[in-house]
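Appendix B, record 7
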Amino acid sequence: MLQRVDIGPRSLNAYRGIVEDNILDDLLEFSRDLKGARVAHINATPYGGGVSELLRSAVPILNDIGLNADWKTIAGDSFYNARTVPLGFSEYLSLWRHARRGRPSRSWRRR
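Structure tokens (predicted):
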């Protein structure tokens, strides 16, 4: 049910000259205590949306600084609403996130 997202490597050193060296050095120093720590990111989709864009950059850097970071997507069967209109998993998550934030519910019908 979980599928690994392969995003390749990325080096924190690539940010030297863009980010001040002391900030990058502090990050490397603080990460020493977390070396080997396992971090699992679970998301609905590997493309589109802010979370996917963030993870595409963050996961390789976390690995570069010594953490054991992984990103997986969760697939699921369609969910059904009260009208028995099938919703895809990512649509269901979107509705759930909006409701959790107190935003008015979107229409359950597909557009």
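Remarks on this record: The helical segments are 21-31, 50-64, 89-100. Residues 78-84 have pLDDT under 50 and may be disordered.
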